[in-house]
Amino acid sequence: EMHQYLDSDGSGTSPTCVSSTIGAERLQAATQWLQQTGFKGFLGEIGAGNNTQCVTAVEGALCEMQQAGGAWLGALWWAAGP
């Protein structure tokens, strides 16, 4: 089980994402490791700001997971604040 936030320091405290491709980019190494070892991954928390760039980044992360040939079991969205 892993967590992934798409802001610059990976903390989930900023509404700004690094880029629209950061979701897929940050999952690539984990995806490769899961595929090489045969383990299954679960993204227990993923979160990003409420703006177009972040929505695109989250979509990219979910697409990366979906295209990983069963390496990922799923993900849960994490939200905080009012």
UniProtKB/TrEMBL annotation:
Domain of life: Eukaryota
Record's keyword annotation contains Nucleotide-binding: no
EC number: 3.2.1.4
Enzyme class: hydrolase
Catalyzed reactions: Endohydrolysis of (1->4)-beta-D-glucosidic linkages in cellulose, lichenin and cereal beta-D-glucans
One Pfam entry name: Cellulase
Alphabetical UniProt keywords: Glycosidase, Hydrolase
Family: Belongs to the glycosyl hydrolase 5 (cellulase A) family.
Name this polypeptide is given: cellulase
Organism whose genome encodes this protein: Pycnoporus cinnabarinus
Source organism phylogeny: Eukaryota, Fungi, Dikarya, Basidiomycota, Agaricomycotina
